[in-house]
Write a structure and sequence with these properties.
Recoverin, domain 1, 12 helices, about 60% helix, Ca-bind, EF_hand_dom, calcium ion binding, Calcyphosin-like protein, EF_Hand_1_Ca_BS
Length: about 210
């Protein structure tokens, strides 16, 4: 599928989300946050996930209310205080003052069919050459050839610059771009792309073409 077509589908999703946010109708707080993320395109949910990861100092995958609030505010999402409190209370099921950020992000992402999750996993596993659960420039060197890239051929960019540029697709809007893409971040990125494509077979084709699966 031409890259331009994918961009036009993402643009349509962004515009649809903006229209829905502006229609004045009452919305569930989580659905409203999802629309806010969609209005930023494929990197909306990804940016929020990254903001949460920055604050998870001990790697426990849990956030208290202040951290949760700060993550949403830090990336500039327009969510009011009562919606933030409502979302937090709904996920703090044992009332211990913390929520599991992975569970929250899974709920925030639009649901995907098993076939879509499967093809996303295949794409990630192909790129994650050493199987450590994250994609880096070192992984990409083994699976992504830059030899036919126009900017490589013209001498404008080196191999490393092109590979870093590819990883930036998954880090746009992130508060801490680090050149590392985790499986969760890969899923978050493609969850929004998935929402812009109605047909399962078409989504499958997009990823098979993109990653030569």
């Amino acid at each position: 599928m031409p890259r331009e077509d994918l961009f036009s589908k993402e643009a349509a999703l962004k515009n649809q989300a903006k229209r829905e946010l502006a229609n004045g109708l009452e919305k569930d707080s989580i659905y409203k946050l999802r629309l806010q993320c969609f209005s930023r395109g494929a990197t909306g949910i990804l940016g929020l996930a990254r903001a949460f990861r920055v604050m998870d100092d001990d790697g426990s995958k849990t956030l208290n209310l202040e951290e949760f609030k700060k993550g949403i505010i830090d990336i500039g999402l327009d969510v009011n205080e009562s919606d933030i409190d409502d979302m937090f209370k709904r996920f703090d099921t044992d009332n211990n003052g913390t929520i599991n950020m992975t569970e929250f992000l899974v709920k925030l992402r639009p649901p995907m069919s098993a076939s879509r999750l499967d093809i996303i996993a295949k794409a990630f596993n192909k790129l994650d050459k050493n199987g450590d659960g994250q994609i880096t420039v070192a992984d990409l060197k083994n699976v992504y050839s830059v030899r036919d890239h126009p900017k490589y051929l013209s001498g404008e960019m080196t191999e490393k610059e092109i590979l870093v540029d590819f990883l930036k697709n998954f880090e746009a809007g992130a508060p801490n771009p680090d050149g590392i893409v985790t499986k969760e971040e890969f899923d978050n990125y493609y969850a929004t792309i998935s929402a812009s494509i109605d047909n399962d077979a078409y989504f499958d084709l997009v990823l098979r073409r993109a990653y030569k699966l």
